[in-house]
Design brief:
Layout lengths: L1 H77 L5 H10 L7 E8 L13 E4 L7 E4 L11 H9 L3 E2 L3 E3 L7 E11 L5 E10 H17 L15 E5 L5 E3 L11 H8 L4 E8 L2 E9 L6 E7 H4 L3 H24 L1
Antiparallel strand pairs: 1-2, 1-7, 2-3, 4-6, 5-6, 6-7, 8-9, 8-12, 10-11, 11-12
Helix pairs in contact: 1-2, 1-4, 1-7
């Protein structure tokens, strides 16, 4: 009877100690977990801003490479402005250097070659059966001089990328495009023609996959191998927030007001808790050099804090071990 009384008193004395230790350890674990969460969140933002900057630089280099390939052909056209057949031969000469270009053209000012009529616009393109084919597409019905790209080239006298557009003809050529446009001038300094290279966005989508994979394998960005199991991906946006290139060729439009404002002014930023494809995501975005587009790195929200889970498990285990240890010591 006396022994039972002592055991009861012992448990009574032990309980406040164990409860106190449990509360203290729980509060410490919660505070530590919150601190780790904030540190991980800051680290994730810094890491993905770095990924965004690297992606923007790589996309800019890809686009500049496409421009250089196109300029090689346009320079050849410029050297043959005195001969319309030489122009066609120039368009054909290096067309196979970049198979991602679906077509090259040279739209001449009306009556530039009187023997060719008012409208002369030779077009070298990739047909469905492969290789390259030639077609004269200029006509009164297709008055290219009123096209926005022609008017802009004539007024600006500078090269540029056209606004993205959708072309449909019922063949494999149908799809979303952007055209690199460059005006050419004759020896007198007068406009001779406006050249263009039609690029299908399948090309950029393919390149974006390479950009993402190279970021995950980058030894500087991924020193501690924290990017390898994440699902972030890179897209290219126009100033209206429309996705003009997606690694999985999906259609996507981002409608956040702050993001749209920054895109129009070529600024960088971050948007958190944006729902994309039914999933909460954080979007890191910024301008691409040389072109009026922006790159955005889209990161699922769960991936932002994925690396907190192991820390939470460790802290939970430490709390349980600490409470059990105190309980056993007090019992003895």
């Amino acid at each position: 009877m006396e022994e039972n009384t002592k055991n009861t008193e012992s448990r009574t004395k032990r309980r406040p100690v164990v409860l106190t230790v449990l509360v203290v350890l729980t509060v410490m674990a919660a505070a530590s977990l919150y601190a780790c969460y904030q540190v991980a969140l800051a680290g994730a933002h810094a890491r993905y801003m770095g990924v965004k900057n690297v992606s923007a630089e790589k996309v800019a280099k890809i686009i500049r490479g496409a421009e250089m390939n196109a300029n090689n052909i346009f320079d050849e056209v410029s050297r043959n402005l005195n001969d319309p057949e030489g122009v066609v031969a120039a368009l054909k000469s290096k067309a196979n250097l970049n198979l991602d270009v679906r077509g090259y053209f040279a739209a001449f000012v009306p009556d530039y070659y009187p023997e060719k009529g008012t409208w002369f616009e030779p077009y070298i393109f990739q047909p469905e059966y492969g290789g390259f084919d030639y077609r004269q597409v200029g006509s009164a019905r297709h008055n290219y001089t009123k096209s926005p790209w022609y008017v802009k080239a004539k007024e600006s006298s500078a090269s540029f990328w056209s606004e993205p557009y959708y072309y449909y003809d019922g063949t494999s050529l149908s799809g979303h495009y952007s055209t690199f446009v460059k005006p050419l001038f004759d020896s007198k300094g007068d406009l001779a023609c406006v050249c263009g290279a039609d690029m299908k966005f399948e090309w950029l989508a393919k390149e974006l996959k390479w950009v993402d994979e190279s970021s995950k394998s980058n030894k500087v960005l991924n020193k501690y191998l924290v990017l390898t199991d994440l699902n972030f991906y890179t897209v290219i946006l126009n100033n209206d927030g429309e996705c003009i290139a997606h690694p999985d060729e999906k259609e996507l439009t981002l409608k956040d007001e702050g993001l749209l404002k920054d895109l129009k002014h070529g600024k960088s930023g971050v948007v958190t808790n944006m729902e994309i494809d039914g999933e909460e995501c954080t979007v890191y975005y910024g301008p691409i050099e040389y072109i009026d587009w922006s790159v955005a790195v889209i990161v699922p929200q769960k991936d932002i804090v994925k690396h907190i889970l192991p820390i939470a498990i460790v802290l939970l285990v430490l709390v349980v071990v600490g409470v059990l240890t105190v309980w056993i010591v007090c019992k003895r």
